[in-house]
Amino acid sequence: MQRLLPLQGGRNFRDLGGYPTEDGRHVRQRLIYRTGVLAYLTEDDQRQLNSLGIRLLCDFRHARERRREVIGWARRDLRHVHWDYDAEAVSLRRLIGGDSPLSAEVAYGAMIRLYGELPELFREPYADLFARIAAGEVPLVFGCTAGKDRTGLAAALLLTSLQVPWSHVVADFELTDTLVDLERVLTERRQGMGLEEHEHLRIVNLPKEVRAPLLAAKPAYLEAAFDSIRARYGSFGGYLSSALHVSAEDLQKIRRLLLE
User: Fold this and answer.
1) When you count CB atoms within 10 A of the terminal residue's CB, does the N or C end of the chain come out lower?
2) pLDDT tens-digit readout, 15-74
3) Can you tell me the distance from the alpha carbon of 11 to that of 132, in angstroms, rounded to the nearest whole number?
């Protein structure tokens, strides 16, 4: 199936449907989409998205990102939701350690730490996403700036809750590396990565091999997130119920809605 929607001004906009589950079913198409920033959509792009009947846009970006790259896509029946949180919480500068020298190894370690923290940092947005799906607010799209980190983990959580095998969960995560040239995005659209100004300039000026871990969608990052979930909650199911407040009934509703 064609997973990526060919939007002129879009980034990493794709359908999460079509993946098989462990019990022999498949994720329904045209119900859940994931994306990068939607601030540069053309009129043709907006018409294409409107034809999908999307009812809800869940924006994982923080307030400064939303102000810097404003989404102009709007319809009377399209709701935009977002969550306010401290931008420093997802700051690579914090994870790297201020102005310490940066190497590829340090950058990789920072990404591992970021993913280890994301399940807790984004408990509220992820819980709200699951609640809205359980309530039937589909079709919907969720996204951030690159559509890689905050969005990638949200997609992995949702696919795992639907019992999609881990190999497919990882493959969906890695697709960002194939479908989006984030190196080009970083250098051509200098506000496009959603990083704070001093962080952005620092990353742009780094050697390409040092930047690479920050822009990649490595399976080890996703594994770090799920390792932290199991360490804190004992299991993925424990995280769903305790952290995201997804009840057994909610999970049944989500699976009935999204699987065929």
Assistant:
1) N
2) 999 999 999 999 999 999 999 999 999 999 999 999 999 999 999 999 988 998 899 999
3) 24
- How far apart CA 74 and CA 79 sit, in angstroms, is 8
- Give me the residue spans of the domains in the chain: 14-255
Lookup result for tokens 């449907």: 17
Q: Of the candidates 41, 51, 44, which has an alpha carbon nearest to the alpha carbon of residue 139?
A: 51
Contacts of 211 (CB under 8 A, 6+ apart): 107, 183, 186, 203
Q: List the structure tokens of 84.
A: 């306010």
Rounded Cα–Cα distance for residues 148 and 36 (Å): 7
Q: Which of 80-89, 125-134, 156-165, 224-233 has the lowest mean pLDDT?
A: 80-89
Is the pTM for the entire model greater than 0.70? yes
CATH of domain 14-255: 3.90.190.10
Distance, in Å, from the CA atom of 218 to the CA atom of 156, rounded to the nearest integer, reads 13
Non-local CB neighbours of 7 within 8 Å, separated by 6+ positions = 13, 41, 42, 45, 48, 49
